[in-house]
Amino acid sequence: MTPSPQPLGGLRIVEGASFVAGPSAGLALAQLGADVIRVDPPGGGSDFLRWPLSSTGDSLFWAGLNKGKRSVTIDHRTEQGRELLLALATAPGRGAGIFLDNMVGRHRLTYDELRARREDVIHVHLQGRSDGSPAVDYTINAEVGVPQMTGPQGVEQPVNHVLPAWDLLSGMVVASGILAALLHREREGQGAQLELALADVALAGVGNMGWLAEAEMRGGPRVRQGNHMYGSFGVDFETSDGRRLMVVALTEGQWRALRDVTETGAVFAALEQALGADLSQEGDRYRLRETIAAVLRPWFAQRDFGTVRELLERAKVLWSPYLDMAEAARAARADETSVAAEMDQPGIGPLLATGRPLRWAGTGAPPVPAPRLGEHTEGVLSDLLGLTSEEIGRLQDAGVVRVSGDGSQQSRRPSSPELPPGAPRQRGLPARA
Amino acid sequence: MTPSPQPLGGLRIVEGASFVAGPSAGLALAQLGADVIRVDPPGGGSDFLRWPLSSTGDSLFWAGLNKGKRSVTIDHRTEQGRELLLALATAPGRGAGIFLDNMVGRHRLTYDELRARREDVIHVHLQGRSDGSPAVDYTINAEVGVPQMTGPQGVEQPVNHVLPAWDLLSGMVVASGILAALLHREREGQGAQLELALADVALAGVGNMGWLAEAEMRGGPRVRQGNHMYGSFGVDFETSDGRRLMVVALTEGQWRALRDVTETGAVFAALEQALGADLSQEGDRYRLRETIAAVLRPWFAQRDFGTVRELLERAKVLWSPYLDMAEAARAARADETSVAAEMDQPGIGPLLATGRPLRWAGTGAPPVPAPRLGEHTEGVLSDLLGLTSEEIGRLQDAGVVRVSGDGSQQSRRPSSPELPPGAPRQRGLPARA
């Protein structure tokens, strides 16, 4: 494989963030070649032992979201620690002077004090709500109507989805905001003060798809549709051997492919006639979704998964098998072109990690291990701030920084009993089996 | 309000995309001040009537995702149309020469032919899978294990979430990729060929949170937990008047706040003793989630929503009410600082639309109407390519472009019968009621 281009080589971002959104912004930039320095208090931030944990008791979550970054531990609550952080965030360099902060309701460092040190600093403040009050993905999602639309038909209560989608999305909004600010700085010489609230990302997300306007025009929320896709035809089917698949006919061509492979053309022509419908139109496919699904269901129920797969592939139907997370991991291992690959994570061991999905000049970027907590404290303070070993030693003695030892398992809680240590990996599931 | 900065003023992106991911990339860039020219075939792309529809039969989805762009209609399947598109995508300008394409399995225009016209062109090809085979959010999500983890406990079948999270996320990955490529071009003078597959974004998304590695170590998928948050404590509760809320105790401080306001400290201290647990640890809160929820539930069930809200707010508990989409719209209208605001969308009328969530120097960007389809064909061909009215007229006669008429309601399907025309808007719900 040709080495992946590092288009953001020369950039340096100081990341004072935790959990998903902030760290995933830094991850995306690191995967494009930026030097991302994650700063945590000695002992780790509040996400340092966030689940899922490995059988060694380390956080697979933390390891996944901090791949390819440098880790520095500084206690920003001390006067000296604040000073170090301020110096790091405003250190010279054309691609430096970028600070990401996700303290809730207040700042580790304010824009004004950063700017006093470096006029063109770029400061991003990420938080739950724009008024400074706390909120997380799990609370925000409840407020934007999604759990009332998710889940099986007939369920009365809200159904949370497990994916922290607003966190992931906010992370990429932050990454694009930093890049926009850098581009602006390259062109105009000015810094920028950016702020982003998860709550605003979520409301804009549902608003951009027209969901807010729809609810107002409808005079109430859209009703829950189970696994049916909204506004066109798409739903899950079960094969004779109990496998489930998601089948979608979003466009007219996809609808024709599905109808033809299931040899239901005459049935649907008669139905269109009887019901005054035109199933080439997505709206009519949606209105008649239950009827369409009922007509198609026996075709799937009469065939095993292998047969269904072969016929759907040949007919170019748009579909996917449902895979559980372990099956998804196996499929990824069986696929040489996958964005996931085995990687040796220091402190944990070999694990399946994911690289950069964006391909640049034909290549992605393979996963790179996360640092041990505090691994780069000494190097960063020495290289970027010119501190001597003695100065760093004194800071360590004063509890301001910690240069090593944070990566040890001491004082950790035992790992989840749900995780058997050394459970064997299963391999070899074909990519779409 | 001070006018919002336009940090990407001077940029021009030609967007040949449809549905969510590609258009949401263009939307994010347009909301930062870029000139985004969406190119569709005459009559509209395959998402032109995507649901939700307004009571006028227009797509609220299309209007939401194309806010603030220019719209040009060119039939790229004709020789002359391809030539026009090529010329637009490679037109001169320091911030121009950027083309986003999401044709499945092939290209509207290849990188090589674009580059032959403009050496430093930036080309992004967005598709379902990296091998060119089609996939959409709804099929991809089935393959990455999420529907097996979503939904009420006890449900056996996969539960799709309704939010096209991978689409939204892919859009922001594209936006950040374009900005990274522009920054790289500013600094190095080189263009870039970028490719992104939804399937890779989804796999990287679950991988980055450690979910793939966890499933392998566990030897199987994580089991479904209903509305419980994974790895810490968070679940929904019902008040005496039937309102539901999501309550989260992710950090130790949040746990203390919840325990104290519900006056359950002694109960949990006794439980910790009896069960050998330490509820200040998120792992123990997760393991004992059912017990914790059962202890707390009566407190919520004995109080009405107003009382619960007041007590939780005062105690700084992390929580949100569940709002359905209509309630979310009302709350947004009642909140003067909301990213959502009423906007007059030509062809549809006043509706609740959303602006830019990212605040720059203290201000967001209010929503700007979407164009009528083809509204800017004549202006763009004239201004950017120097075509005369006569030349444009000949192209229109040949069916290559259409300068007007696409915005009319003729030949449209009737709007959804589920949408009562002119349903009154309800206002005045307090922001967090």
Descriptive tags:
CoA-Trfase_III_dom_1_sf (chains A, B); 3-stranded antiparallel beta sheet; disordered C terminus; CoA-transferase_III (chains A, B); Rossmann fold; transferase (chains A, B); alpha/beta; elongated; 433 residues; CoA-Trfase_III_dom3_sf (chains A, B); homodimer; CoA transferase (chains A, B)
Task: Write up this protein.
Two copies of one chain form a homodimer. Chain A contains 16 helices and 13 strands. The first copy, chain A, has 433 residues and is of the alpha/beta class. A six-stranded parallel sheet of chain A has the order 3-2-1-4-5-6, sandwiched between helices. The first copy, chain A, has a three-stranded antiparallel sheet with strand order 7-8-9. In chain A, strands 10-11 form a two-stranded antiparallel ribbon. The two termini of chain A are 27 Å apart. Residues 406-433 of chain A have low confidence and may be disordered. At the A-B interface, helix 1, helix 2, helix 5, helix 6 and strand 6 of A face helix 1, helix 2, helix 5, helix 6 and strand 6 of B. Strand 6 of chain A pairs antiparallel with strand 12 (356-360) of chain B.
